[in-house]
Amino acid sequence: MHLEIAAPATFKRTHNWYYGVREGEAVVALWLNGFNFNGCSTRCEYWWVQLAGLCMNLSLSVFDLSLGWLAWLWTLPMLSLTVRRYRDAGVWWPLALLQRVWLYRLQSEPMTLIIAGVMLLVIVVNWVICSLPSQVQP
Length: 138
Description:
It contains six helices and no strands. By secondary structure, it is an all-alpha fold.
């Protein structure tokens, strides 16, 4: 797999050497860009990583394996990708951090219908924001 690196002009605008990667390259870029909280990421980059995470979760559940350490390993790079995606969509990026903290806080509460509804609302708001078109022009 050949990972395309963005042109210097694109990097200057987006602060992301892997801006605009596709398919499997997005998962590789997630790990190479895992601590980059600056810059932007495209919808394509975000959603391919989400699909890879879903496939990983489904395959682990089929074999009844615990995510454990793998889930924690995935958290920080996913958070940085979400922050970059919010920036790319033109949304106030600290909202991504607030949503993540709020979700973790709600997960520690006893599950009630209200808490489940609030968690679902937070997740849907995140999906809508991450589906917004790019504000950064290539």
